[in-house]
Amino acid sequence: MASENAQQAVQPKAPHPVAQSIENMGRGFIDAISTLGGLITLAFDVVRWGVRRPYRLQNLFFQLDFVGVGSVFIVLLTGLFTGMVFAHQSSRAFEMFDAESLVGPTVALTLTRELAPVFSALMVTMRAGSAMCTELGTMRVSEQVDALETMAVNPIQYLLVPRVFAGLLMVPILTLLFDTSGILGSYFVSVTVKGLSAGTFLSRTRQWLDPVDVYEGLIKGAVFGLAVALICCFKGYNASGGSKGVGKATTEAMVSSALSIFILDFLVGVLLH
User: Fold this and answer.
1) What distance in Å separates the CA atoms of residue 120 and residue 132, rounded to the nearest whole number?
2) Sequential DSSP letters for 120-180
3) How many CB atoms within 10 Å of residue 250?
4) How far apart (Å, rounded) are the C-alpha atoms in residues 98 and 100?
5) Rounded to an integer, what distance in angstroms lies between the CA atom of residue 239 and that of residue 61?
6) In whole angstroms, what is the distance from residue 74 CA to residue 119 CA?
7) Which residues lie below 8 Å from residue 261, measured CB to CB, with a gap of 6+?
8) What is the three-class DSSP state of 56?
């Protein structure tokens, strides 16, 4: 009996649920601030090593091809059906006010300002960003990154700089392709399916769509591409714990990239207006 009482006495008390919740919130906040600081530090390191020799243009061109050219088909397909769906739904709404001529400019403005950069960045995140994170994470846990440092090769310059620059340069180009594909899709639905005059569609779109709207989408695309590439590279470069850790890092990178796209979309939109 005495031994049982002694064992009960030394057993730790279970933490209070409220205290546990506060502790978890605090830990999550600290982790978020630490990750943000790591991303900012990585961005400065990428800029610092990106302007130093050797430049390794072959690595950059390979990543430009992987991130940009490899994503062309999925971006064009997504843009085409996005424009078609949006034109179909918009025409149904404008028919109630006899304003079908506004379908073209409505779709064009929405695509160029918002949908094209957001959807293009999301497509790059799912296709190229996940591959970046997984590849870098695998290299980290298999000690290939350490091998580069042993050979006096800076891993940030060799591995991360080409990927970040590719995201920064190629997402705006993909945004332009999304714009073109989406407007063509809306033209097909409006003119061929709904019977709107082609001249009316083109003239009203030209009347309301300004180059500033396209530039806004390109700026957003560059910001999103930079953010996605930095997050995916950061998560993969700092992965640990074997294959399970690589999978966890990739999942975190996808979630963080998607959230950052929507948050930055709001912030950049506020700054540009």
Assistant:
1) 17
2) HHHHHIIIIIHHHHHHHHHHHHTTHHHHHHHTT--HIIIIIHHHHHHHHHHHHHHHHHHHH
3) 23
4) 6
5) 26
6) 10
7) 118, 121, 122, 125, 224, 227, 228
8) coil
Which residue has tokens 């180059």?
211
The pLDDT assigned to 27 comes to: 75
pTM score of the predicted model:
0.88
Q: Collapsing DSSP states into helix, strand and coil, what is residue 43?
A: helix
**Helix-then-strand count for the chain, H and E:** 13, 0
Residues 109, 115, 118, 121, CA torsion sign: negative
Cis peptide before 54 (omega within 30 of 0): yes
The pLDDT of residue 13 is: 63
What's the pLDDT tens digit per position in 100-133?
Answer: 788 889 999 999 999 999 999 999 999 999 999 9
Tokens of 113: 């300002």
Torsion of CA 145, 147, 152, 155, to 10 degrees: -10
Token pair listed for 228: 């996605």
Q: Mean pLDDT score of the chain, rounded to an integer? A: 87
At 222-270, the pLDDT tens digits run 999 999 999 999 999 888 888 888 999 999 999 999 999 999 999 999 9
Q: How far apart are CA 118 and CA 104, in angstroms?
A: 20
SS3 at position 54: coil
Check the CA dihedral 231-265-214-93 and report its sign.
Answer: positive
Q: How many C-beta atoms surround the C-beta of residue 247 within 10 A?
A: 15
Q: At what angle do helices 72-95 and 103-110 cross, to 10 degrees?
A: 140
